[in-house]
Design brief:
The protein is an alpha/beta fold. The protein contains 16 helices and 22 strands. The chain folds into 2 domains: 411 residues, Aldolase class I (TIM Barrel, Alpha-Beta Barrel), CATH 3.20.20; 198 residues, Immunoglobulin-like.
């Protein structure tokens, strides 16, 4: 089925094709407030779409154990009722004795018939019974977007490309068929939770690069916000939709609408599950807000969405985990965050040490793939001890139980006692402090032409940038300069291009959704200095810019807001040996408010072309505002 051939009915017709309660919910949620004086843009009336914080304030009494004991989850196969090795204990019993309190196991519908799940009537009840008999909570998992069955809509990314397999994230009837109705059946069958693994195995993408602009999604947007949806729909070629949305300045609005629809859809599944068990947990893997809207869709202020994050898989808790926890708190997300560890990539002692830290500083931990902890426990060769599903090289299961059991006992003691006795969060003392710099007043003329011999640059502050994200010297020796005046912020950089470099094909135009793939630089500018709301600027060596606001508010996190378009002027020069960038960006009210004398901003310069480098090492991805450097606006450098 091609994208053009799909049913293009809009949001209201779409509502008619899904179950009654869900339809009502969606219809209600689409009655969005009319913004006072919101300007009509290109035939679109972008009425504000708002998101209210929904923090976890009244935890359901049946879930009090989560705060007291933390979540300690084992992601296993559905063999909990079977014996552990040649003992007479069930696998569930061994997991409970080892200190786990939750098990997660995956189920799949028949690939050729999504209405049939072969193991539903025997395997699920046997596992629930075995787990409940020893006090383990049971969360059943399904994989999102894996092994599709037509008919369904394909994802079209905002740059225009139609996926060959990956599903549209908002093909609601399909998603209902794919996993929604099964989540409800698991709740009916007595499970305690449902986890959606959003990693999309066996699809052509494992992440969405932005909101889907397939016929179905684009049409749904027009039906709600355009007066003449038919005309717009017919006049914009499918591959140009994302570009058109950017050009008329509603791309960010479109993204928020997609987030809202995701929230409403998942919320309807949650409500149907919780009609059977009002403390039924819903959650997801693999990274926070992997599908933007996940968290608020699944969680409420009473029953949280559990986020099974994989950022800690091989390293244990890091700055990424700290940022994620901070995001949950600042946005008022109804979420609990548990850090995942990959058994095969962690020696038993490492697994215990890192699991303890995640359980103390986050809301718990989970071990993948815990099948290895309970299957062929004495084997030191074979699948139980090899990548990816097995234990650490040649290790018997007992080596894990010898450390996990005491770790969980220690966790309970630490949680009941004084926080001062906790082991320190890793890295905080071990890494370099963030760099500082000054942004002096401009002392002379600057012409934005890609040459740095202007008088204004001679008195600017100079910086070097030649290290990777972990503070190690690596890659080209870049330099950059900063200054400011009454109306604008100035940045210039000289970036060597290593000999023999073949530049990737450059994606042209402002706010290109894949601008990060261009050969250039990224700037992060955080005027508040607290990381709540900061600008990301991507500058290509062709002079194209991408400006986005990252807002630690509900609904905005993953894709940023591309409707923010400050006045920016660029000068650029590129030879075979180097590129030079100069920018002048006007202070404005939305994000880059004019600094007072002496004011300090968070700031970072990053490069991911030729090498991955950053001025301030983040010890993680670029988007870690807590690790941005500090720049102070002063008179002299
Ligand atoms: Zn779509």
């Amino acid at each position: 089925m091609t994208d053009h051939a799909v049913n293009t009915t809009g949001a209201m017709n779409l509502v008619n094709s899904i179950p009654g309660a869900l339809a009502l919910l969606l219809a209600c949620s689409l009655l969005l407030p009319t913004g006072a004086g919101a300007a009509n843009k290109g035939g679109i009336d972008p009425r504000p779409i708002t998101f209210e914080p929904e923090p976890l304030t009244k935890l359901h009494p049946k879930l009090a154990w989560i705060k007291r004991d933390k979540i300690r989850a084992a992601w296993v196969s559905a063999d909990l009722h079977k014996p552990y090795g040649d003992t007479d204990k069930t696998q569930a019993r061994v997991l409970a004795d080892g200190g786990f309190n939750t098990v997660i196991f995956g189920m799949r519908a028949d690939n050729k018939n999504r209405s049939h799940m072969p193991d539903f009537t025997d395997v699920i009840p046997a596992n629930i019974e075995a787990a409940h008999a020893v006090g383990l909570a049971v969360w059943v998992l399904m994989s999102y977007g894996t092994i599709h069955q037509d008919p369904y809509h394909r994802y079209r990314d905002p740059a225009g490309k139609l996926a060959t397999k990956t599903c549209c994230p908002l093909d609601l009837p399909y998603l209902e068929r794919h996993f929604g109705r099964w989540a409800v059946k698991f709740a009916e069958a007595g499970a305690d939770g449902f986890i959606l693994d959003t990693e999309m195995y066996e699809s052509d993408l494992s992440d969405y690069e932005g909101p889907c602009v397939c016929s179905y999604c684009f049409r749904a947007y027009l039906d709600v916000f355009a007066d003449n949806g038919d005309t717009i729909y017919d006049s914009i070629p499918a591959a140009q939709r994302g570009i058109w949305l950017r050009e008329i300045g509603v791309y960010g609005h479109y993204s928020r609408f997609a987030v809202k629809r995701t929230e409403d859809f998942l919320d309807s599944i949650r409500a149907r599950c919780q009609a059977h068990n009002d403390a039924f947990i819903l959650g997801y893997a693999s990274t926070m807000e992997h599908l933007p809207g996940n968290t608020r869709g699944f969680g409420t202020s009473t029953v949280p969405c559990v986020i099974l994050d994989e950022s800690e898989y091989t390293s244990g808790p890091t700055f990424t985990m700290r940022r994620n926890l901070q995001y949950i708190e600042q946005s008022g997300l109804p979420a609990l965050y548990i850090g995942g560890l990959w058994i095969n990539q962690n020696r038993p002692e490492q697994l215990a040490e890192r699991g303890l830290l995640a359980a103390l500083y986050a809301d718990g931990w989970w071990a993948w793939y815990s099948w290895a902890l309970v299957t062929n426990p004495d084997a030191t060769t074979g699948p139980q001890t090899t990548n990816p599903y097995g234990r650490w090289k040649g290790t018997p299961a007992s080596a894990y139980w010898d450390v996990l059991k005491p770790m969980h006992a220690r966790l309970e003691k630490l949680l009941a006692g004084d926080r001062a006795a906790w082991p320190a969060f890793p890295l905080l003392d071990a890494v370099a402090p963030v760099p500082n710099g000054r942004v002096p007043l401009r002392q002379g003329q600057i012409t934005l032409d890609g040459s740095l011999d202007d008088p204004g640059w001679q008195e600017a502050s100079q910086f070097e940038m030649a290290i990777d994200r972990f503070g190690k010297k690596d890659g080209p020796e870049n330099t950059f300069m900063l200054c400011h005046d009454d109306t604008a912020f100035y940045f210039a950089a000289r970036c060597p291009i290593p000999e023999g470099t073949v530049l990737p094909e450059q994606l042209r135009g402002r706010d290109h959704p894949r601008a990060w793939a261009n050969y250039g630089l990224e700037l992060f500018v955080d005027p508040s200095g607290d990381g709540r709301r900061y600008a990301q600027l991507i500058l290509s060596s062709d002079g194209d810019t991408y400006e986005s606001v990252m807002d630690y508010g509900p609904g905005a996190f993953q894709f940023g807001d591309l409707d923010w378009n400050p006045e920016i002027e660029v000068g650029v020069q590129r030879t075979e040996a180097e590129f030079i960038l100069e920018i002048r960006i006007l202070f404005e009210d939305a994000v880059l408010t004019k600094p007072k004398h002496g004011e300090t901003w968070g700031f970072n310069v990053c490069r991911s072309s030729s090498a991955v480098q950053s001025w301030s090492p983040t010890y993680g991805p670029f988007h870690l505002p807590g690790r941005f450097g500090r720049i102070q606006f002063v008179k002299d450098r």
